[in-house]
Fold each of these.
Amino acid sequence: MDKTWLVTWLDEALEISLLDSLREYVTAFREELAGQDGETLVLEATNDNLALRRDILLEELDQILASRTLDRARYYLRRLQRGVLEVRTNDVNEINLNRWKDYAEVWSDSLWVVPRRDSSGTHTAGYWGNFIPQIPRQMMWRYTRKGDWVLDAFLGSGTTLIECRRLGRNGIGIELNAGVAQSTEERVAQEPNPYGITSKIVVGDSATVDYAALLQQLGVEQVQLVLLHPPYHDIIQFSEDTRDLSNAASVDDFVARFTEVVAQVTPVLEVGRYLVVVIGDKYAKGEWIPLGFYLMQAAMEQGYHLKSIVVKNFDVTRAKRTREGLWRYRALAGGFYVFKHEYVLVLEKTD
Ligand SMILES: C[S@@+](CC[C@H](N)C(=O)[O-])C[C@H]1O[C@@H](n2cnc3c(N)ncnc32)[C@H](O)[C@@H]1O
């Protein structure tokens, strides 16, 4: 459908001065719309197409039809008109706040119970310790726009860079393990690149990479989102490399090294933009070690404002899957709970 058709339809609806006539006019459009297939109604326009969710639009028409006064019906019509004519976003994403109901796929609650990982396309569940693609995707929807630059300083299997390609964001990934980086590079290259964005992988230690020089090479000064998904200390040992955070000698050493990574990436993150840390806790010697809280505190001490603590359900790790009964027994006997969650910490760089 051409966008101008709907714009004219709305203009004409607002000219109608009798409630019954307006209802007839709206009913005709509602019936036509309800008879069509597809989740979205695409309104074609010269500058940018607009996609409206059909179910939401039907609800809006029902609201107009249920109005008891002409004034009320016109109020809803004008709201619909605003949503179609004006795009209102905040500075960091592309969510049209005038059509906020259209974005059901963008989560806004702090508890994420994700039933299954998205394993579509080139995503692989094969890398032990990877995160589900829904995490970087949600973060990019909320905190970036097309063409922005996203930095993932613990790249692993490249989940972030694959999502970057799908969503039209440029992506930079740092990975210490050269072998991992190479297979990630090959996998990322297989993902279609419809927006023609840059995917850059650097083999190195994220605590010592010269980020300013790297960005200069790429022709940009700053990035608009930083994602950090470090090892959860020594829960999974990723390599023998002493620079690997999973080889940190103690929890204090782990936190100190993470703090160093935050200190290094902060100057290249644009003010007003976001740092996202994905981290789970661990047990050691009968004690719950709150890595998530330690890292959150460390980031806040670097001048970040905490915007959200998201709790996400945790996939049972391969090692634990076969030993679930044993863990339950240990928990009952030892006075603790088996952890089933990890954190997505959202922090804003304010100055
Ligand atoms: C939890 S995994 C990240 C997984 C990733 N989000 C994914 O979806 O595949 C942590 C990664 O950090 C890497 N790593 C550990 N220490 C590092 C360091 N100092 N610099 C860069 N990468 C490091 C490990 O090799 C591992 O691949």
Note: The two ends are 45 Å apart (CA to CA).
Amino acid sequence: MIEGNEIHRKLTCHCGAVELELTLPKGLEKLRRCNCSICSRRNAVVASVDLENLRIVKGHNDLKEYTFNTHEAKHFFCSRCGIYTHHQRRSVPTEYGFNIACLEGVKIEDYINVPYFDGKNNHPKDIQ
Ligand SMILES: [Zn+2]
């Protein structure tokens, strides 16, 4: 688990080409998995950060963007090692979701009970 008083966190891909700095004043917020078509395939546990609280320290040219369907969500991954780092949410476009397994100091095995968000059948942008 993350210590509560450390608000600047480093997030890296596997090869280290991409490094992000996150400002997380309240720690890991909105922890979840998701069962939508892309999230179920990558099966990452994600948390949320406001757009202005994510800074690309290095790897601008190595980050690749992937979009599909409505092209609202923007999914980013390292084009060298293939690791998903973060995405701009479709549900809340003022936020990024990020891969907590890429966050320095996280033991992913501590997050085994993070629940699934039903993005497949009950995505807030798909409900009238
Ligand atoms: Zn990489």
Note: The longest helix spans residues 37-42.
